[in-house]
Amino acid sequence: MQVRFGSPSIYKVSRRCQVILCQLSTSSLQKPAPLAPPPSSFPKLDTDFNSHRIAYRYRGLGELLRGWFVYRLFSINILVNNQDKLAEFGKRILGRKLFGTIFQLTAFGHFVGGESTKDIQPIIKNLEKYRVKAILDYSIESDEKKTPPTESSATSSSDSIQYHTDHNEELSFDQNSSKFIECINISHNVCGINNLIAIKITALVQPTTLKKFSFLLDKLKYHPSSRNESLFQYINDTKQRSKDEINSKTSSVIEPLDKILIDNNNKTMSETSVLSTSELNELKNLIIRLNEIAQAGVKQKISIMVDAEQTYFQTAINFLATEMQRYFNKISPIVHGTYQCYLKDTLKVITTDLELAKKEDYIFAAKLVRGAYMEQERRKAREEAYEDPTNPTFDATTSMYYECLNKVLESSSERTAGRVKVMIASHNEDTIRYALGKMKDMNIPPNGQLMSFASLYGMSDYTSFALGRQPLHLFCLFIQQITIISLFFKANSGYHCYKYLPYGPLDSLLPYLFRRAQENRGVFIKARKDRIMHLKAFQDRLFGSKQ
Known about the structure:
The chain has 547 residues and is α/β, with parallel strands linked by helices. The chain has a domain of 351 residues: TIM Barrel, CATH 3.20.20. Helices cover 57% and strands 9% of the residues. The chain is built from 23 helices and 8 strands. Strands 1-2-3-4-5-6-7-8 form an 8-stranded parallel beta barrel, surrounded by 8 helices. Helix 19 links the parallel strand 6 and strand 7. The longest helix is centred in the N-terminal third of the chain and has 25 residues. The two termini are 43 Å apart.
């Protein structure tokens, strides 16, 4: 094709060149423009968290409708208050299989990844597309079936026999331990190194034994700092040990507690409230299981989040988590503890633990939560006529959360970088905004190692996906690697963000799902926002609005 010299297209190009040359010659005579300020390390973020388009891109049309329906159900008090009775009624009327199918299509499908590791893998990959990582949570937990003996009730040795664990229960705890190790391997293979999984101590030992151990630790005011070495040091100080040798070593750690109790408290405590031989064996087996799980985490470079549970277990749980940190967190943050800010003594506990971590120079790694057992705790305190361990108001819990976070950040400023880590595990927007403000005030980078954010799968997606990095086109990712043009393609935000992704047998997950309903009823405004935003996202998707 020939183009005539005087054609309009050639004229336009020529004219454009003249304009550019003129601009260049003019700008060369002027003073150079001041340099633009460097881009902020704190990216722009909609802290109102009102974008349903950002929140639910990972959800399909049917999932959005299901989410709206589930939150609508959870806002009906009569259903939430009687959920366990309705579940049992549904199983009797519909049969376990049909009831299970319906449940999987509603609440189970919305809040749970699935029943097996195969079910959760597509969900993990889908979350990672939007720069949100999954914390795998094989959600097996137990609660006490009967109240074990206390100071006033433990009067005969026959009473305590009914709480001992039989051989089949020990096997089930071994199986749960293997499941947690499998979870570590799956996290490594699918999510990569430096990810997290969650464990619950009550899945690894008889709850009544754990409660009794917690009671005794409370009575003694016993803390890991009372011993020069970690309990786990005794197990791992030699590379090869038989299980019998480990049993012998753990006996040397736990049995002194038993003797201390008899020596110091014989006037106020009956002998039956001291750990029996059978219960000591259960605790030794628990410690062996925890050691095996932590060693698997070290091998695969996957961290273990020790979840908090009810207050009558929590002193023992915190004791074990701290003992694990003392040994396993010397180089990497393998073990994370959990602090429930709805409890009155949380600030005192976290302060003590921070001081020990600083003294012994191991990595303090923690997750801050409000707490998931408040209604149960308050009801139990009323029924058994003891002081309510929870904060009296929502605002008091908020203040406790802020004080605990401030204490952790204060400790981080006193120590070498990387020796303190904290996860803001909250669905409360004000709490998240407070944490973001602290990060900005203290110049803590979003992609640093000190702070991260987490929420439960199926809840508060509008915060998680706003905080996480936004997905970029492959061409933009390529440009980012080779040129300054990458500044124009920077993600809207780049905070470390996680989703707790529970999975496991449906029957075992019913308590977890019932608590989700209780939480959403208790924080009605948030539940209403979840419901409304699911509906908006569904309408947008249905009528073809641009996502």
